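User: Let's play a game. I give you a shape written as C-alpha cells, and you guess the letters that built it. Ready? Here's round one.
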C-alpha cells in the first residue's frame, strides 16, 4: 500500500517535471522577436502562380483556389476545349482563358509561361510565384508518372530509368508534343528552351536571371513549408490562409529509389533545370535567413500544428488513411490516375463529419481536375448573376464591356466582415486552426 503510494507520487513528480520543461520550451519558442502572424497590411490578392509539373504545385494551387473562393476573387480558368490546363504545352495566350473568368485576380492552372501575354491579362500589381523541385527526384517522378503518356519514356525497354539515362537521345524525340515531360521540364514550363545544349552555360545563367526578374518568389518543393512562410510574408496573408492537406502523392510502392549513379546522370541530362534549381534554392535560403531562421522554424512549427488540427478535425480525430482511387467512395475526391501502374493516393471523408467543417475539408482534399470544374461552375454562376443585376441600368452598354464588369478586388481589406456565403465554415472554424491568435508570437 505504502509502496504503491510512493510510486504514484514519483510518477506524478516525473510528469510534473516533463510538463514544466515542455511548457518552458514552448514559451521560449514564442518569445523570439519575430514578425506577427497577423499582418496589419491588406492581403495581396493579385497573383500569377506558374504551376510546374510534379513539384507539389497541386497543393499550392489548392491553397490558392480556396483563398480565391473564400474571398470572392476571380480565378482565370481554362476555357473548356483546353481541358483543365491552358492548352498546355502551347505558349500561354489570353485566348485560352474562359471569358467569364475575366478580369482575373489570380491564375494558377498549368501553362507554358508567356510573360507578355500574362502582363496584358493581369492587374499591374500582380505578384509572380512559381515552384521548383530537386531535378533527380523530379525526373524519377516524371518518368514514372508519364511512363505511358510520353513517347520518350514509352520506347524505353522494361520502363527502365537506367536504360533511358544510358542513352537518352535514343529514346527522346524533341519534336513530339509529349517530349516536354522528358527534358528540362521546368525550363520548358517557364517558357525557356528545353533543348538548348548542356554546354551552353550562358543560356542557363541568362535564363535564371530573367526568371528572377519576373518572379518575386520561387518556392522549392523540398522546403515547401519554409517556402509557404515566405509566401505568407510576401502576400501579408494569415497562417490560416496557407494551411493545407497534402495532395496528389504517389503510393509508396510506385516510388523507386535511385541507384547511386543516377542523380548525376539526371542532372547532366536536365542541366538547365539543375542550374535553375541550385540557383533558386540558394536564393530561397538567402530569403529565409533574412527573415531569421529561428522565426521561420517557429512558423513552420505553428503551420504544422494547425495542419494537424485541421487534418484531425476532418478525419474524426485521427490522421487520414490514404486510399487508392478505386477505394474512394465520393467520386469528386478521386484523383486522376496517369496509368494503371502509378497509384495516386487520395482521401475519403468520414460520413459522420460535422457540417461546420465539411466544406473546408472537402475543398482541402479535392483533386485538381474536380476543383477546377467546381470553381468554374461557381464563377459562371456568379457571372450570370452579376449580368442579371446589371441588365436594367446597363442594357445599352455593348456586350464586350458588360462581360468585364465584375468587381476586381486588388486587395482583401481586413476590416471587412468575413463572407457569409457557402464558404462560411472557413471563417467560423478559423480560430480553431490558428494557435495564438492575436499575435502571441510578437512578444
Ligand atoms: C506571348 O504572348 C504575346 C502577347 O499575347 C504574343 O504576341 C507572343 O507571340 C507570345 N509568345 C509566344 C512565344 O507565343
Ligand atoms: C495600375 O493600374 C491602376 C488602375 O488600373 C493605375 O491607377 C495605376 O497607376 C497603375 N500603376 C502602375 C504602376 O502602372
Ligand atoms: C527486361 O527485364 C527482364 C526481367 O527483369 C530481363 O530479363 C530483360 O533482360 C530486361 N530487358 C532489357 C532490355 O533490359
Ligand atoms: C538548398 O540550399 C541549402 C543552403 O545552401 C543547402 O543546405 C541544401 O543542401 C540545398 N538543398 C538541396 C536539395 O540541394
Ligand atoms: C465518426 O466515426 C468515427 C468512427 O466510426 C469516430 O471515431 C469519430 O469520433 C466520429 N466522429 C464524429 C465527429 O462523430
Ligand atoms: C461574394 O459574392 C457574393 C455574390 O456576388 C456576395 O453576395 C457576397 O457579399 C460577396 N462576399 C464578399 C466578402 O465580397
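Assistant: Ready! My guess for every position:
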Amino acid at each position: 500500500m505504502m509502496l504503491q503510494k510512493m510510486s504514484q507520487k514519483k510518477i506524478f513528480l516525473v510528469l510534473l517535471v516533463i510538463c514544466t520543461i515542455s511548457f518552458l520550451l514552448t514559451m521560449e519558442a514564442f518569445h523570439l522577436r519575430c514578425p506577427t502572424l497577423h499582418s496589419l497590411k491588406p492581403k495581396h490578392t493579385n497573383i500569377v502562380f506558374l504551376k510546374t509539373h510534379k513539384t507539389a504545385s497541386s497543393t499550392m494551387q489548392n491553397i490558392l483556389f480556396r483563398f480565391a473562393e473564400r474571398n470572392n476573387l476571380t480565378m482565370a480558368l481554362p476555357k473548356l476545349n483546353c481541358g483543365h490546363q491552358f492548352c498546355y504545352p502551347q505558349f500561354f495566350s489570353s485566348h485560352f482563358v474562359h471569358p467569364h473568368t475575366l478580369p482575373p485576380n489570380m491564375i494558377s492552372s498549368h501553362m507554358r509561361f508567356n510573360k507578355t501575354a500574362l502582363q496584358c491579362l493581369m492587374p499591374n500589381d500582380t505578384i509572380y510565384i512559381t515552384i521548383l523541385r530537386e531535378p533527380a527526384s523530379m525526373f524519377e517522378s516524371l518518368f514514372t508518372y508519364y511512363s505511358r503518356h510520353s513517347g520518350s519514356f514509352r520506347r524505353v525497354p522494361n520502363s527502365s530509368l537506367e536504360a533511358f539515362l544510358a542513352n537518352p537521345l535514343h529514346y527522346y524525340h524533341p519534336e513530339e508534343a509529349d517530349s516536354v515531360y522528358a527534358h528540362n521540364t521546368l525550363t520548358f514550363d517557364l517558357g525557356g528552351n528545353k533543348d538548348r545544349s548542356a554546354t551552353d552555360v550562358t543560356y542557363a545563367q541568362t535564363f535564371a536571371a530573367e526568371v528572377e526578374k519576373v518572379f518575386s518568389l520561387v518556392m522549392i518543393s523540398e522546403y515547401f513549408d519554409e517556402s509557404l512562410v515566405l509566401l505568407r510574408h510576401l502576400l501579408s496573408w494569415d497562417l490560416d490562409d496557407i494551411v493545407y492537406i497534402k495532395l496528389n502523392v504517389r503510393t509508396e510502392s510506385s516510388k523507386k529509389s535511385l541507384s547511386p549513379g543516377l542523380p548525376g546522370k539526371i542532372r547532366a541530362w536536365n542541366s538547365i533545370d539543375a542550374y535553375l534549381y541550385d540557383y533558386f534554392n540558394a536564393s530561397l535560403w538567402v530569403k529565409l535567413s533574412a527573415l531569421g531562421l529561428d522565426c521561420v522554424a517557429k512558423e513552420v512549427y505553428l503551420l504544422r500544428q494547425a495542419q494537424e488540427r485541421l487534418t484531425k478535425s476532418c478525419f474524426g480525430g485521427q490522421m487520414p488513411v490514404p486510399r487508392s482511387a478505386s477505394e474512394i467512395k465520393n467520386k469528386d475526391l478521386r484523383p486522376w490516375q496517369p496509368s494503371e501502374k502509378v497509384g495516386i493516393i487520395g482521401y475519403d471523408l468520414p460520413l459522420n463529419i460535422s457540417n461546420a467543417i465539411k466544406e473546408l475539408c472537402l475543398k482541402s482534399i479535392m483533386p485538381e481536375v474536380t476543383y477546377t470544374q467546381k470553381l468554374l461552375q461557381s464563377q459562371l454562376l456568379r457571372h450570370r448573376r452579376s449580368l442579371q443585376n446589371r441588365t436594367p441600368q446597363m442594357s445599352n452598354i455593348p456586350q464586350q464591356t458588360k462581360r468585364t464588369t465584375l468587381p476586381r478586388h486588388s486587395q482583401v481589406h481586413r476590416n471587412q466582415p468575413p463572407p457569409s456565403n457557402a464558404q462560411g465554415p472557413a471563417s467560423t472554424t478559423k480560430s480553431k486552426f490558428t494557435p495564438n491568435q492575436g499575435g502571441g508570437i510578437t512578444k
